[in-house]
Write a structure and sequence with these properties.
The protein is an alpha/beta fold. The chain has one domain (10-268): TIM Barrel, CATH 3.20.20.140. The protein has helices at 12-19, 46-56, 66-70, 75-84, 100-109, 124-127, 137-146, 163-172, 188-196, 215-223, 239-248, 253-268, and strands at residues 26-33, 58-65, 89-95, 117-122, 149-153, 177-181, 202-205, 228-229. It has an 8-stranded parallel sheet with strand order 1-2-3-4-5-6-7-8. α10 links the parallel β7 and β8 (228-229). α8 runs parallel beside α9 (188-196). Bound molecules: zinc ion. Zinc ion is lined by residues 30, 32, 153, 181, 233.
């Protein structure tokens, strides 16, 4: 084997492959929980997910529960799950634009869910309502007033959450912290533009990208590692695969540290 990591004794990659976990905290900023009809997941409930994340050294997972996104569970119940694993689980409050009453109620309860609720999740492609449309306004204003993170599912070319809609949203809500889930996959021109043309309130999130050779390198070159967050869609994809993709990328170790934990700590602090 000629793995380049073995040519770098003492590297992050070498330590990761040898020990099976990182020697620094990892913050996974894009997770889910619960079964989903589209895929079989070996471990998708909190106890097994937490055990797996502890093996690799994930300090925090911020997730939105599938049933809170698609029906069957309210955000209040997700907060109860977080309370069972307070040292690792944090949640995005799922925003379903088809249930305005739920949005209103959940935003009123947001503060009761501290420290577990750290922001909001918007899944426009699946709910078929464009991010700039009225049903999201109340939630986005709430996040903007408080400077909260909002994880948007984004995808290049999507009419609901593609580049132009995210650029417009980031300019309109300049205090909100926009995490672009999947980094507008497939539209790297807009990944770059949305970061470059906004006032420092946008980060690209990596879900789906670590398995795509050369993609992390291009994003780091385009926007700088300070604007990139680690995320996985766990339990859809595995933490080991995604961390492996980051530490195997041809970027500096400073870049890896920014992506895997420093940026999350800069945004949310070390104690959350
Ligand atoms: Zn996701």
């Amino acid at each position: 084997m000629n793995g380049s990591i073995w040519e770098k004794p003492g590297s992050i990659a070498e330590a990761f492959w040898k020990n099976g976990h990182a020697d620094f905290p990892i913050y996974d900023m894009h997770g889910h929980m619960g079964p989903h009809y589209a895929i079989y997941m070996k471990r998708c409930e909190a106890p097994e997910m937490v055990a797996h994340m502890k093996r690799i050294g994930v300090r925090r997972l911020v997730f939105s529960h599938h049933q809170a996104l698609f029906g069957g569970m309210r955000n209040a119940e997700v907060a109860e799950i977080c309370k069972q694993f307070p040292d690792i689980l944090r949640m995005y409050v799922s925003i379903n634009p088809h249930y305005p009453e739920w949005i209103k109620e959940d935003l009123e309860k947001f503060d009761q869910w501290a420290p577990y609720a750290v922001g909001l999740k918007i899944l426009a492609d699946y709910h078929k309502v464009k991010v700039t449309d009225k049903p999201y306004e109340k939630a986005l204003r709430f996040a903007d007033e408080r400077g909260l993170p909002v994880l948007f599912h984004t995808w290049g070319g999507s009419p609901y959450n593609g580049g132009p809609a995210l650029l417009e949203t980031a300019l309109k809500y300049s205090k909100m912290k926009l995490f672009l889930g999947h980094s507008l996959y497939g539209d790297e021109e807009y990944s770059k533009r949305v970061v470059a043309e906004t006032p420092g309130n946008v980060w690209l999130e990596l879900t789906a990208i670590p398995g795509d050779r050369g993609h992390i390198e291009r994003l780091v070159k385009a926007v700088g590692s300070e604007r990139i967050l680690y995320g996985t869609d766990f339990p859809w994809f595995d933490e080991y695969q995604a961390v492996g993709g980051v530490v195997s990328a041809k970027i500096t170790e400073d870049d890896m540290r920014n992506i895997l934990y420093r940026n999350a700590e800069r945004i949310l602090g070390k104690d959350w």
